[in-house]
Design a protein that fits this description.
By secondary structure, this protein is α/β, with parallel strands linked by helices. Helix content is about 35%, strand content about 25%.
């Protein structure tokens, strides 16, 4: 791999396939450079972690309820004392609706993607076909050099 890379091939593959699985060096640094190149190409970037996502489809595309840890506070109703449920708007749909006018689309960069199940990865690989302005990059594991593959191929190989 070149010492200084333009990221052009990654951007072309991202626009062609919509969802990529990446393998990054464990010492880090490369993913930040590639995200900066993608942002410079006109995309708005959002980074999330796969840990704690729960139902990926609802978290990204539907209104979903969350219950923060109650920290000793109990709800005062007659139901279970587990705290209140707060409803959060869909992350991807909200971000896409609020894109700047000159933005090409939204880049959703998901770290720690190795914990996702094959069904969740399948959903994420199909999501850009439902919303063409969405591009997804999932970090699937470590490697000695930065490499990527279409997410559908990474699912088939696993």
């Amino acid at each position: 791999m070149a010492l200084i890379t333009t990221g052009g091939q990654l951007i072309r593959d991202l626009e062609k396939f919509g969802a990529l699985g990446v393998y990054v060096p464990l010492e880090g640094g490369f993913e930040g450079r590639y995200r900066r190149r993608i942002r410079a190409a006109g995309y708005t970037s959002l980074s999330i972690t796969a840990r704690g996502l729960g139902d990926v489809a609802m978290y990204l595309t539907g209104v979903h309820g969350v219950r923060p840890p109650h920290l000793g506070k109990k709800s005062s109703g007659s139901g279970a004392a587990v705290g209140y449920t707060y409803f959060i708007p869909p992350i991807v749909n909200t971000q896409i609706e609020n894109l700047p006018p000159k933005s090409k689309g939204l880049l959703l960069w998901i770290i720690e993607g190795h914990i996702l199940s094959s069904q969740e990865l399948e959903f994420l690989s199909n999501l850009p076909s439902l919303e063409p302005r969405l591009k997804i990059v999932i970090e699937l594991g470590g490697e000695r050099y930065f490499r990527w593959t279409p997410l559908k191929d990474a699912i088939a190989a696993a």
